[in-house]
Backbone:
């Protein structure tokens, strides 16, 4: 069955209205400019996540950090990295409930506050136990923050910009990684514990900014409507999407589509729970897409580069502290540039196409990487030196790997998960995504250092096979969601009948509302003419 698409010829859909507002017209719209500046406050939530992996990579290269924590081995490194994900698992059960009950905005702030507490303890750590506890607290705050932020982004953004906004959000993971990498590169020359305490402290930068600018942040209009606060929602949509013009048809149409989506979802699922994911074919497919995205985003071999680049570089002869921190810094800059480029192009190429190109490229790179790593290790075993050309080849594959990962998996993983979900499952779906990411991360962070240390190049074969499996799953399971409004996207997996009903009800509500507005305006005009006479 062909995917549901909005009828752009029908005058009563958001797709039709927004379809005519293409190009760069938004740059002259002060409402959308103000909105996008506010959305930037949400986008930096991804900073703390990206900072974490790059920071831990950098700290492992620092002699002062190694001495402070008694030169942790493979299993200890696994625990130090994985405990952050364990902290996420502790708070995760209350994320969806809190976002739906109290609103997205307060959950964002609570998460930022907890994260700052954890970062402060991490920077002040006097022993391994304190460092582990601090990273657990960071995880508890982080998951609240990164659950609320993309929901606010998607539900506040201008319809045509929803996907790219969340794609940029996830791409800014690399901003955090970039800052951590270059800060660590700059502090490795410090000969005391501030070499690692300064990078540890700066992980809280995004949360400090969010709390400092809290007075500028609005609540989600979709959440407001779900709580029957329609007037507040309409004012927000009017202010930011229509530049303050309440007569703009887009305001009425957006309100109608949101109301319709909530109405249909309420009729279909009076008592929504996590079991709702297994109560229809569309929701079952949604569940498995989220499961796939969560695990694939962590199990595509990227865990080696994100948390254990030091081990990879050691295996090919790049052991100098300055060299490792510089490579880490350059790699994060490279990744951020490409992820932002493809985040901007996602509407042009489509989500599914980018996922396929990204996964196929990762598979090809990993096969070559495995061959080069194996040849380098075998050459080293024969002459004790190894081949410099093979080492440079592996390093090139690391950079090429991050290029392909930046095409699809970096910008799209959060965007895609939220786009396929209806409002009543959106918060729960994002919690499931974060759960799968955390579970995959815990396994990753324990297994990768042990696998690389003990199995060496043979360990990479595991990812060769797994990436081939990923490519098959993406091809058969993933659907295209580009260029649809949020409510139109939410029905893409529920069948043609539900889609037609959605458009029909939305059009009916919008037509009635627009008719009322037109009639009211005519009465005002008539009164003005009478008074003039």
Residues:
């Amino acid at each position: 069955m062909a995917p549901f698409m909005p009828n752009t010829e029908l005058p009563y859909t958001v797709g039709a209205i927004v379809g005519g507002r293409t190009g760069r017209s938004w740059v002259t719209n002060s409402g959308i400019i103000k909105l996008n500046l506010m959305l930037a406050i949400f986008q930096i939530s991804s900073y703390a996540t990206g900072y974490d992996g790059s920071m831990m990579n950098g700290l492992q290269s620092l002699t002062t950090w190694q001495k402070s924590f008694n030169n942790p081995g493979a299993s200890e490194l696994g625990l130090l990295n994985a405990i952050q994900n364990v902290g996420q698992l502790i708070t995760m059960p209350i994320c969806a409930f809190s976002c739906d009950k109290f609103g997205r905005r307060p959950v964002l702030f609570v998460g930022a506050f907890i994260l700052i507490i954890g970062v402060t303890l991490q920077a002040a750590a006097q022993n391994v136990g304190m460092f582990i506890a601090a990273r657990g607290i960071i995880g508890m705050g982080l998951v609240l923050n990164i659950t609320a932020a993309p929901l606010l982004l998607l539900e506040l953004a201008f319809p045509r910009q929803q996907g790219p906004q969340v794609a940029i959000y996830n791409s800014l993971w690399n901003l955090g990684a970039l800052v951590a990498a270059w800060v660590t590169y700059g502090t490795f020359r410090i000969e005391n514990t501030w070499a690692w305490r300064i990078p540890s402290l700066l992980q809280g930068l995004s949360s400090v900014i969010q709390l400092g600018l809290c007075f500028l942040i609005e609540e989600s209009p979709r959440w407001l409507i779900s709580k029957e606060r329609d007037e507040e929602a309409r004012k927000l949509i009017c202010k930011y999407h229509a530049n303050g013009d309440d007569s703009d048809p887009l305001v009425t149409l957006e309100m109608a589509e949101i109301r319709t989506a909530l109405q249909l979802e309420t009729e279909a699922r009076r008592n929504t729970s996590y079991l709702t994911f297994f109560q229809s074919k569309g929701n079952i497919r949604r569940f498995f897409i989220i499961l796939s995205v969560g695990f694939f985003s962590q199990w595509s071999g990227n865990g080696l580069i994100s948390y254990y680049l030091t081990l990879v570089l050691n295996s090919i002869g790049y052991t100098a502290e300055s060299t490792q921190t510089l490579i880490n810094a350059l790699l994060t800059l490279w990744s951020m540039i490409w992820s932002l480029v493809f985040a901007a192009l996602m509407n042009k190429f489509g989500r599914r196409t980018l996922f396929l190109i990204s996964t196929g490229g990762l598979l090809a790179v990993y096969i070559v990487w495995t061959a080069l790593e194996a040849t380098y290790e075998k050459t080293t075993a024969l002459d004790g030196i190894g081949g410099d050309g093979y080492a440079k080849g592996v390093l090139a594959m690391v950079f090429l790997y991050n290029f392909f990962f930046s095409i699809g998996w970096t910008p799209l993983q959060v965007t895609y998960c939220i786009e396929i979900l209806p409002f009543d499952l959106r918060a729960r779906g994002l919690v499931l995504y974060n759960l799968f990411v955390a579970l995959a991360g815990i396994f990753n962070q324990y297994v990768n250092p042990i696998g690389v240390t003990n199995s060496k190049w043979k360990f990479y074969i595991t990812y060769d096979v797994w990436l081939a499996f990923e490519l098959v799953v993406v091809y058969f399971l993933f659907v295209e969601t580009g260029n649809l409004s949020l409510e139109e996207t939410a029905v893409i997996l529920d069948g043609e009948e539900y889609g037609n009903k959605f458009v029909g009800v939305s059009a009916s509500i919008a037509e009635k509302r627009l008719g009322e507005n037109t009639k009211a305006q005519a009465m005002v005009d008539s009164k003005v003419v009478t008074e003039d006479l």
